[in-house]
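How it folds:
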Amino acid sequence: MYHNKQGWKKTFKHLLKLDYCFLMIKLPQIEVLRGEVLLDDVKRIGELEDDFNLDVGLLIGILYEQFLDQIRCERDLEVFAKYLIRRVDEIKYEPQEEKTLVQTGPNEWSLATPKRVPKKKKHEMTYIQVRIKESFVYRGEVMLYDMDELLGGDEINFRIEEVIQVLYLDFMNNIKKGQTKETLLSVLNSFANRED
């Protein structure tokens, strides 16, 4: 048993100074399992010990940090904004049907778009806790604000959690299309270069 109270106090103060926050990301359970399988492959290829701490939350945090770096370097916010709007919409809502003719009066017709219907849950959903530096969360919030302003306002109606959800699901979709050794080594390299 550890009896050194000063040691505990120092450790606790150190944890409080890390300036991290925790976000809860809602994901399909099958995609979380797919991420765990990927990380198992990363451990195997990287010849890492079983107790080496790789988890889906850490992977998601790294994907988000890489996304912010990409935004910072390329800075084409309009393209990213339109992409994110489309992807969040695809995840949240059923595909919109084409406009149809609707009779509005005895001799009147008009084109109408059906209301968007929230997607029916096809998969069991789960929440993953992701630890991210506060400054990265703020950077993401500023990015969303800038994107909304760039598009004229009221276009961006989602939060950082949904951006992160899109990033992870897109990454997993790319893995489904063909998991290559290079992708796995890239993930391993990202873990190795992480500043924590």
